């Protein structure tokens, strides 16, 4: 999704290398919006990222952005050895491809996207050559580790060290919300004037409200939609438990759940649904993009975000919540600090990690179509007036102006 024309060309002569490890580009929506925004403002942008999800060319140019991809490493799910294989493999490719880019077109700034918090090693290598590091803080990795594995220990302490070294290496940092900005200032010891909030949100002109697809509704009176990663920390077990309570415990069988996404826990979630005898009430579409994604979400009446309350989720902005709001879908989620900051009155909030209350909140909205419509309008208005990508563009460009001022360019 490419943003519209920008009013200036302040980036002329400025060269940027963006490095991202956990998703290919342009699939990573945030990174792609950043890259295209910079390009349209005159910057020369190159991206290094993994392959995957159909983006398998090792080199291509899209919308003026040169992309170098490397074979996606196996994602680590447990143990130091698994993490070492994933991260060391990625590091090798970063250094290999950055050397190629440096010779071909050069770069003045490395824009590193976490996780993992290791791109600073590449930035160190080029710092003595006059290159500066801009850290794009996508996830709080120490809290992510605890959310994923339910423990701390040695790897957790290592991630705290990596995070501190990342912030110490960065001349400028961009945060997805105010909570992340405060981490950069307090835990990362960055000067407040060097930290900019650049939110992740859809472009309203591209993320369009439409009629949906009646066939996807499976004849249900109310359709609930989920879009996102299906991993260990997204709370899909809580969503399935809430669906069980809603359908069998509360007798609300006239519902259907459309689950859009991919991830390592998808087989386990499908097995849980089947084991509870709920398969007729669920459609798992796998990953959908572009018009296919919009068709699925526009077929829904309510968007669900079952991410449980924990140290990571409480301060994270969920892309799916922003997408639901953009499409005028009311939201059901647990009461997370940044979830409430994003959605406000466009959402109802279930008690912490309670599938019973999550089911009850769904039932409330099922019974009140007028409230759903009002919440949907409220959410769309919040996106249009404060939260859409257009509102983040000035902060992104200001962050780049600041780092290039350090370079005297």
Descriptive notes:
- By secondary structure, the protein is α/β, with parallel strands linked by helices.
- Helix content is 43%, strand content 17%.
- It has helices at residues 29-40, 80-104, 119-127, 141-149, 153-169, 178-186, 236-249, 266-275, 290-297, 319-326, 337-343, 355-366, 369-387, 389-406; strands at residues 15-20, 44-50, 59-62, 65-70, 109-113, 132-137, 172-175, 195-197, 222-227, 255-260, 282-286, 302-305, 331-334, 347-350.
- Helix 7 (236-249) links the parallel strand 9 (222-227) and strand 10 (255-260).
- Residues 1-5 have low confidence and may be disordered.
Keyphrases for this structure?
409 residues; alpha/beta; eight-stranded mixed beta sheet; 14 strands; disordered N terminus
Rg calculated over all Cα atoms: 21 Å
Summing up helix and strand content along with how strands pair, one would put the structural category as: alpha/beta
Number of helices: 14
Q: Strands of the biggest beta sheet: in what spatial order?
A: 3-4-2-1-5-6-7-8
Total beta-strand segments? 14
Q: State the end-to-end CA separation.
A: 29 Å
Order of helices and strands: EHEEEHEHEHHEHEEHEHEHEHEHEHHH
Largest sheet: 8 strands, mixed
The low-confidence runs, each spanning 5 or more residues with pLDDT under 50, are 1-5
Principal-axis shape equals globular
Helical coverage, percent range? 40-55%
